[in-house]
């Protein structure tokens, strides 16, 4: 073959990959949007709406996997990983809110490493749920959320892998900070409630 013929073949391959990449980017943006919508719906108590968004996102995940099956160089990229993380975060939060079993990476159709990163983000979403409970004065329920966060954090901290395999260290650091802040908020809320109860009892005397 001449060099020009070789380059023409390369151009065809890259043109195909470029088109596929644009399609994948569009799908991942849709997955991120649907996942975010489901989380917002869960915080509003709109369970059915959240479930619908998650089901649509799962279909997108399946389609993305099929589309990129023969193109691992496109599949193992940052934008696909980010979409997987957002999806995992939404599914885990939905499972928690509905008191359902947590699905495995295989059931969701995402790589194990991306699932782990999604767990790290899930802790952050639990904190938001915790704060909303505190605002409503539901301290006992908020404490249950904190205890769940702490258990997940402890599990996350048992993982020690190189960054090239999974960049879990950053998620561990973020989780540590979130859990510590949550404990501080819970402690203050309990102390405030205790003081209020003592004051009310004193006023009744």
Mean pLDDT: 93
Instruction: Give start-end ranges of low-pLDDT stretches.
Output: none
> What is the level 1 CATH name of the largest domain?
Mainly Alpha
Which CATH architecture of the largest domain? Answer: Up-down Bundle
**Derived structural class:** mainly alpha
Form type: elongated
N-end to C-end Cα span: 100 Å
Query: Over all CA atoms, what is the radius of gyration?
Result: 22 Å
**CATH topology value of the largest domain:** Methane Monooxygenase Hydroxylase, Chain G, domain 1
| Major sheet details | none
Helix content: over 70%
* Number of structurally distinct domains: 2
Oligomer, anyone? single chain
Q: What order do the SSEs take from the amino end to the carboxyl end, as H and E?
A: HHHHHHHH
Q: What percentage of the residues does DSSP assign to strands (E)?
A: under 5%
Number of discrete helical segments: 8
How many beta-strand elements?
0
Write up what this structure looks like.
By secondary structure, the chain is mainly alpha-helical. It has two domains: 106 residues, Up-down Bundle (Methane Monooxygenase Hydroxylase, Chain G, domain 1), CATH 1.20.58; 95 residues, Methane Monooxygenase Hydroxylase, Chain G, domain 1. Helices cover 82% and strands 0% of the residues. Helix 6 packs antiparallel against helix 7, helix 6 runs parallel beside helix 8 and helix 7 runs antiparallel to helix 8. The chain is elongated.
Quickly list its features.
single chain; 205 residues; mainly alpha; Methane Monooxygenase Hydroxylase, Chain G, domain 1; 2 domains
